[in-house]
Amino acid sequence: MGHTSLEMGTIFLMQTGAGILGNSFLLFLYTFTLLTGKKKRPSDLILNQLVLANNLALFSRGIPHTMAAFGLKYFLDDAGCKVVLYFHRVSRGISLSTTCLLGGYQAIKLSPRTFWWMEFRNRTPKCIGFCSFLFWILQLLVNVYIPVRVISPRSSKNVTVQINYGYCFLFKPNRFMSLFHAVIFSFIDIMCLGFMVCASSSMIFILRRHKQQVQHIHSHRLSSRPFHEARATHTILILVSMFVSCYCLSAILILCVTLIANPRRWLLDTSVLVTSCFPVFSPFVLISSDSRVSQVCSVFCPRKKVLFFKYG
């Protein structure tokens, strides 16, 4: 194994390990909150699905690619390759739709409080569970074609390989199916990304208008109005902008990998690194902005009392 493989393997190991630890901590926190109802927030279910999808993405892509970067070969059979790449595509779709839902929910929550809009806002938390369930069902069905295109390196004879991940092969379907899948997924992705941009623009406009009102009307009621909502909105805006940036860059790299007949190893590694950026860094954005994290840490890591003695 060369120095380059060792370095890339170490980078993948650190990236994947940090992401799994961060997402697992949040998954425990949100699941515990949802089950007990203690300090529960309406967005906890959305965030629970997001960190679950992030963990699934890191387990299905980060761990196998780390093993391949360290020089391991043929550690997955056909069934393992099909399961790994299938759930990677499912987790990618869930992350996209859940981030879209999170941005839309916060935009609705932050919107002006008219009577008819309040009625709609009161019903949105009840729809979150149904939307999350629907997203999983849709992604499981839409990506059902992935296992058909995936084989292990042991069974790669007489097959036109499109992408060699090092541990699994992805081969080319016929032109009609390739065009059909490209159109369907591109349409869904562009629609979700467009909705994220619209929701983010709406939140920025509302926050800016509220800031101008506070500056012109020095009212204690207005100035104390929703600091926690503004803080949550800033966090969601960071998550959405991070997701859109990573997704666009990842889409460009995946397109290059797909179009090139025999893509270089560094291009595949860069594509995986960029694709894993959002699942790795997003939990730490959430951890840094959630006040409940410090309370959990104080329970498990209480501060020790230090006694000082004076000697005569």
Question: What key attributes describe this structure?
Answer:
single chain, about 5% strand, 11 helices, 3 strands, mainly alpha, about 300 residues, globular, Rhopdopsin 7-helix transmembrane proteins, 3-stranded antiparallel beta sheet, disordered C terminus
Outline the structure in words:
With 312 residues, the protein is mostly helical. The chain has a single domain (3-290), classed as Up-down Bundle (Rhopdopsin 7-helix transmembrane proteins). 76% of the residues lie in helices and 3% in strands. The protein contains 11 helices and 3 strands, in the order αααααβββαααααα. It has helices at 3-36, 44-69, 78-110, 115-142, 146-149, 175-216, 220-223, 227-259, 265-275, 277-289, 291-300; strands at 150-151, 161-164, 169-171. A hairpin with a 4-residue loop joins strand 2 and strand 3. The longest helix is centred in the middle third of the chain and has 42 residues, at 175-216. The radius of gyration is 23 Å and the shape is globular.
Q: Secondary-structure map with pairings?
A:
Elements: H1 3-36, H2 44-69, H3 78-110, H4 115-142, H5 146-149, E1 150-151, E2 161-164, E3 169-171, H6 175-216, H7 220-223, H8 227-259, H9 265-275, H10 277-289, H11 291-300
Antiparallel strand pairs: 1-3, 2-3
Order of helices and strands: HHHHHEEEHHHHHH
User: Termini, distance in Å?
Assistant: 66 Å
Strand order of the largest sheet: 1-3-2
Give the CA-based shape.
globular
Average pLDDT number: 80
The overall number of domains is: 1
CATH level 4 superfamily: Rhodopsin 7-helix transmembrane proteins
User: Which blocks of ≥5 consecutive residues have pLDDT under 50?
Assistant: 218-225, 304-312
**Main sheet?**
3 strands, antiparallel
Range of helix content: over 70%
In the CATH hierarchy, the third-tier topology is known as Rhopdopsin 7-helix transmembrane proteins
Radius of gyration of CA atoms, rounded to a whole number: 23 Å
Name of the CATH architecture = Up-down Bundle
